Amino acid sequence: MEVLCNGLNVVDLLAAVPQNIPYGGKTACEKIIVQGGAPAGNAACGISALGHEIHFLGYLGDNTLSQIGKTELERHGVRTDKMIHRTDAQPAIAIVQVDGEGERTVLYSVTGYYPLSPSDVVEQDIIDTRLVIVDGYDTEVNTHLLRLAKKHNKISVLDMESAPIEVMKEMVALATYPILPLSGAQTLSEQRDIEDCALAIDKMTNGTVVITDGINGSVAVVNGQLIRQAAYKVDVVDTTGCGDAFHAAFTSAILQGMSVAEAMNYGSFFAAQVATVFGGRTKFPTREFMESNLAQLTNI
Ligand SMILES: Nc1ncnc2c1ncn2[C@@H]1O[C@H](COP(=O)(O)OP(=O)(O)OP(=O)(O)O)[C@@H](O)[C@H]1O
Ligand SMILES: [Mg+2]
């Protein structure tokens, strides 16, 4: 096994919402689509699209949402055969409204979603894998997975969006590559500026801290030095899943043996392509696409 992924599993209903919709009325939308979503699920799909064998963990039940969640992972080649059957379990569900500027408004429900329990984790799976990628939502089991990854000297990638501060601290300390959006980094570090956040969080972990800030790019700390990566300019349709796409390609680049600076560039280019289509999991660049465009992958 190459990669093991665990975290929140969500089915998204994405709607391109016209301006000034009448409250209580009916409005035709150009696009309404159903697809799998959430940081871990999207990252798993992106990693698979880049040619890596990846297993997604978690529960699946006997219901429509579970069927959609499973199909949506498998559509991108993610392996679901390690997912555990639990009759009443289902993915969370979100209604994502995207306006003409690409701005998102999200309604979600986690009723019926159960995070995997640490007792469900098979330690041998971590021993057999090269890299573990988790989000900061299913915190008990994901902290356990990060501990096991550390114990067995495996690479771990953490998408730490938000969690109680003590949990964030523990997970960031455990991960090889803790990656945070700026908002999460500000909460954790009590700093405002992205570079101050990065330097403060660097002191909390032996891992390599990466902070992303949407269109403003990303920053990492390697050997105490700041590395900056700009975002690629593209015609943005929908930024849903950009962060997840960045994590996917960053992870792939690390597996391919690239440096942190190269991995940030790779992640940034991949995420920008995802912003040009509606939906965070609609279409991913392939490894071939990335390689044939490597010429323009210079640190900018
Ligand atoms: N509008 C954009 N244009 C080009 N690249 C973008 C854009 N938005 C994000 N990116 C790229 O994706 C990376 C991650 O984005 P961001 O910081 O928004 O992640 P996030 O907050 O985790 O997003 P998500 O909502 O997907 O979880 C950025 O560092 C940048 O490289
Ligand atoms: Mg994110």
TrEMBL record:
Which source organism does the UniProt entry give? Persicobacter psychrovividus
What gene does this protein come from?
A: yihV
Answer whether the UniProt record assigns the keyword Metal-binding to this protein. Answer: no
Key word Kinase present:
yes
Carbohydrate kinase PfkB domain residues: 35-286
> Which keywords are on file for this protein?
Kinase, Plasmid, Transferase
Q: Which Gene3D superfamilies match?
A: 3.40.1190.20
Q: Name one GO molecular function term.
A: kinase activity
- Name this polypeptide is given: Sulfofructose kinase
Q: Pfam families of this UniProt entry?
A: PfkB (PF00294)
